Amino acid sequence: MKKIVKLILWLLVIAGGVAAYLVNTSKPIKLETTTLTKQTAEVYFIEDGIVTSDDITDIYPLVNGEIASVHVVDDQQVKAGDVLFTIDKTDLESQVKQLQAATKGFAAQKSNLAQQEQKRRDDLKTSKETLMGELEKATTQYATSETTLAEQTRLQQLVVSQIKTDLAYEKEQYEKTNTLFAAGALQKSDVDAALSKVQGLESSLAQAEQQLEVIRSSDGAVAFDVTKKSLQTQIEYTNDSLRKNYNESMMQYYDTQIEGNNAALALLNKKLADCTITAPTDGIAKDVVGTTKSICTPSTRLLTVINEANRMVECFISVQDLNECHIGDAVSLTLKQRIGDVTFDGIIHKIGRTAEIKTSPLGVEERRVKIDIMPTVPEGITLLDGAQLDTTFTVYKQADKLLVPKTALFTVSDQDTVWVIRDGMLAMANVTKGVETRTDYVVEGLHEGDVVVKDANIDGLKIGKKAVSS
How far apart are CA 371 and CA 392, in angstroms? Predict the structure, then answer.
């Protein structure tokens, strides 16, 4: 009897275990799943961007001197043309006055020289007319036997007197020429030419005086021939003198001096204008270092003007991302604020041509390329120089794509596969991986509405097993 009871108890235990097993094996497993819907797939990366200006001008003086006054302070708003500094003009103004006086003097000397030359020409014309009249008169008198030795002597004395006048003038010209040559204003050839004229007239004077003696000691016929020749020679000299420009070299000297002074005055006037330093553009004055009474040179930076109207966002991207970025591409900029982040658009404006070595926050050296972005700043938002923005570069964006978590994928015989729940049962579905986003893969081979198990590494997953979404 006892054996029968024990047997019945054992059978009951076995039956309970079988029943429990059947219950457990028929119960569906709860899994975390995702139901596929078509969505937009994006691949992007984020870099730190720093606000800067594309129009930054360092202001340097164009002249040496002492700063007379300062009209700007740090962080002051300035307009194009506003006076920022003035440099003392005293020395330059003194130089201008000296040059103006010297130029006026040269102009007066040139004018006086022109007057002297005109007077000389007038005298030569008068002398020529006198000589020609006397020659004609003497010729007539000689033809009618009315000329006398005394008359011919007078005519020769007239020639001697004219030569002496010419000689005195040429000696004066020689002295002026020699003085200008000593000052470096004229050439040696000018001096030689002036001396040659003096020597020629001295020779002519000696000959005329000799001829005068011949006339006094000769008969009428011989005297007339000598007188006639002397008059004709002097008339030829006068004609030759009228054809020449005696003061050409000196006129050129004064013209050169005046031209040089005018050029120097133009330079000085420009320097005077440069003593007033103005803002080249609208902007903010930064790093004002110039102070009153300090000495500045063209290598002294006085301040920097930053044009806030031309704000840029500067960032450095890895060289591996460079080929995904192009001028004109849109980027997303995010300014973090306590009252809420503000996101707005930007356009890639410039891409650097060389890579620079930059150190990451983790201390790793990386080769990066500078990118300049032109932001579209929303109304009411101020971007200060040096502010940091999150800069998002989107390198891939496609709509109507099916995405599965990276953790859902596993490989069976080199085939990418995912677990799906179909009709309450687990099944494997082969897929083709596409673009990889931060958390997902774009896949083909599935359909919208498919239920995909998020984690393919959970124990106990097998085909045909009952499963439900948790």
Answer: 12
Neighbours of 312 (CB within 10 A): 21
With contact defined as beta carbons under 8 Å apart, do 241 and 185 qualify?
Answer: no
Quickly count: other Cβ atoms within 10 Å of residue 113's Cβ. 17
152 forms bridges with which residues in the sheet? none
Q: Which of 61, 63, 69, 59 lies closest to 271 in space, CA to CA?
A: 63
Please state at what angle helix 90-143 crosses helix 220-243, rounded to 10 degrees.
Answer: 150
Taken in order 446, 448, 454, 459, the sign of the CA dihedral is negative
How many Å apart are CA 116 and CA 108, to the nearest integer?
12
Q: Summarize pLDDT for 424-452 with one digit per residue, the tens.
A: 999 999 999 999 998 999 999 999 999 99
Q: How far lies 367's CA from each of 119, 318, 331, 370, in Å? A: 85, 6, 21, 10
Quote the DSSP letter at residue 466.
B
Close Cβ partners of 257 (under 8 Å, ≥ 6 residues apart)? 102, 103, 106, 185
CA distance 155 to 147: 11
Q: What is the tens place of the pLDDT at every residue in 61-86?
A: 999 999 999 999 998 999 999 999 99
